[in-house]
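B., you asked whether I could sanity-check this one before it goes into the benchmark set. Here's the sequence:
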Amino acid sequence: MKDIGSVNYIRIHLFPDYTAGQHGGTLQPPQRKSLVNIKSLATQATVENTELADLPQRASDVDTAVKQLFAEAGTNTDGLPLRDLLALDEALQRHHSALVDNLAKLQQLDTDIANAEHELDGEEAAADPAKKNRIEQLLSRLHNEQAARLEGASANRDALRTQFSRIQETIARILNEDTSLPSACVRCFGSRGSPSHRFLLHSVLLYQLLC
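And here's what the prediction gave me:
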């Protein structure tokens, strides 16, 4: 009789057509909380008006949250589709590093361009045509590199946003698969019995699935 209230009994005997999804396990409250937090961080990072310079921090926040999911004491991640999430996070880190590199180089280019322009306006450049020409050529190279770096940073931004969106979608799928059995219980028993009976049944089922 004890087995009648078990999760396996409910799945096998009451919902024989139910499949648990790719991860084949049930999320524990700490796991669910961590996943919801990661999804929230990824959603915030995809806000349209997010500044380019703010994206590295947003990516770091998501990466830190993903790592915490696997490092938290008492959080058992066995059986979940972690390879998907880890692969997305690894790609996120690569795009993050590329963006940080481009932004750092752009900052240095701004300084170099300002110095060259200041030197071009100086007396020595005005008195020495050859020096003025060298500075102008240097400025041309710096501006070309600046344009290339800006294009690269823009591509990094688009790639990061794509990764944020994929992380959101993956977590949404994990959460949806985990809640599909309780939903099936509600659909099956929601229209049967008295309100008090349905409430008690729902409570027992949800307790069994979450514990």
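One thing to flag: The chain has one domain: 2-20+28-210. Otherwise nothing jumped out at me.
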